[in-house]
Amino acid sequence: MSDKLFRWFKIIYAIQARPGISAKELAERCEAEERTIYRDLRSLDLVAPITNEGYGKGYTFAGDFAMFPFNWTQQEALVFSMLPSFVDQSNMPPGFDTAYDKVMAAHFRQKKRDREILKHVTDIIQMGSPAYREDAPNYLYQVIQAIVEEKTITVVYHTQSRNQQTEREIDPYYLVPRDQRFYLIGYCHQAKDIRTFRLSRFRSMEMTSRTFERGDFNLKNYMKNTWSIERGEEQIHFKVKFSPDVARYIKEEEMFVRPRMKDLPDGSLLFEVTLNHDREFMNWVSQYGPDAEILAPVSYRERMKERLERWRKLYEGE
């Protein structure tokens, strides 16, 4: 087993150092028969994306695979760290201990470097905090770390709509910035479903040692037809006409959906988009005042008229 393990490492390093190396050359480097190398390559295909580009072109790695820097999962790192307990070290050739120590040292150096880079990035990112919380803790670094390491977190979360705090276990999938806030999308063990959490509403947070897998979760599908962060079950097709004064500004808006925009002869802009929720979009349209006219659905056109009437009465009351 030890001879095969060392030969596998030699094969991986040789392919990484010389993409296109042939089986014959690998056999010479490993001091083994070619048929042995072919067997090893078939076995290694389970752990490394080794590919052959065709007759006479030799072996290389598909994609960006490389042995260094390490891209181990937590499980892979644990398995490799336990390697000495599974092999008879008395039968190992000279150099096994030092080679093993170098590999593990490189792995831990890379992990430390990744943590330092992550900490530096999160220190640079400055987001606003609620005015009523002067010393609000910033859990951005810990959340990103949990996402990267695929670790479940326990949090105390404040639900604004019910004005209550609950303790939750969350598998953090993605961190999404919206409107000067960070939102965490992940699996909530209490709700047994995917949920969206606003980071500023975390009252405490700890990363556990339990790992998770995202499975087939797809963020793009989850956020489909979502204007910003609020999701619903409807399919509302909005048509809005923007005046020539603001048309060019609408075109440069950074949006999370893909609307249809058509220039009209008078310089105005016809804006169409299908959404699963209305509130955030209606608030966005409102900021353009008389430069934005809702054409459809008719029910939302009427809703906007009612809102404007309430505003008018409010100011007339003075």
TrEMBL record:
Please state every residue range assigned to the domain named WCX. Answer: 235-311
Q: Which residues form a coiled coil?
A: none
- Domain of life of the organism encoding this protein: Bacteria
What InterPro entries does the record tag this protein with?
Answer: CBASS_pafABC_assoc_protein, HTH_11, PafC-like, WCX_dom, WH-like_DNA-bd_sf, WYL_dom
Q: Does the keyword Phosphoprotein apply?
A: no
Report the residue ranges that make up the WYL domain in this protein.
Answer: 139-207
Q: Where is the Helix-turn-helix type domain?
A: 7-45
Which GO molecular function entries does the Swiss-Prot or TrEMBL record give?
Answer: DNA binding
Keyword list, A-Z: DNA-binding
Key word DNA-binding present: yes
Note the PANTHER family from the entry.
PROTEIN PAFC (PTHR34580:SF1), PTHR34580
Report the protein name in the record: DNA-binding transcriptional regulator YafY
Which species is this UniProt entry from? Paenibacillus lactis
